Amino acid sequence: MPESQLFTPGISAGMKAGCPFCLARKTGVPKVGETIRILSDFRAGQIGKVVPPPPIFASEPYKITIQAEGDPPDVTWTVNTMADLIERFPGPPVPDWAPPISLKEAEELDGRVVQFCEKSMSSKGWRPNLPYFYAIIRYIWYKRLPLEPAEVWRVLHAHGVARNWQVRLTSLFRGGRDLLVFAEGRKPVKKKRVQPLSAQIKRYW
Known about the structure:
- The protein is α+β, with helices and mostly antiparallel strands.
- It has two domains: 3-88, SH3 type barrels (Roll), CATH 2.30.30; 103-192.
- The chain is 35% helix and 13% strand.
């Protein structure tokens, strides 16, 4: 990610609050021998050691090759550090505000929260950009995540949303999701409430 994007308000606040996804945006390219954990996409939670890349990657230093835990010795993965969020393992402790959902879904939610925070900042100060907040509500509803308004607020606050917006945004979240459930169905699924940032790795062979 370009350096200029590392210090936007939502990401900067997230870093200070210990957000693993915001911190991962400044990880850089790990060296051979280091252990990393992938935080995004379908491989979220996968831990692996960086191994020497094939010669074809010589002109693409942002791509690394890993030997993932539990994989056969002859199987390696390519990781694009400009597209995938990664952390050097072991990473920072799980923050106490982390939502009780899987690592993959927490990363997807985090991206929407960061975008909402950035779009809400202007030369006149901070004011919630409602269409981007509606995108957060829609994502939580669509994924059927069993998050309480107070839990969503903690994520928002950790990314820099001032406390004086708590009542307005938590009420808007509660009413918005209730309306979507009433109109479209898709109630929250209780079993999706898991240990914060937990991961279940699926094999594809």
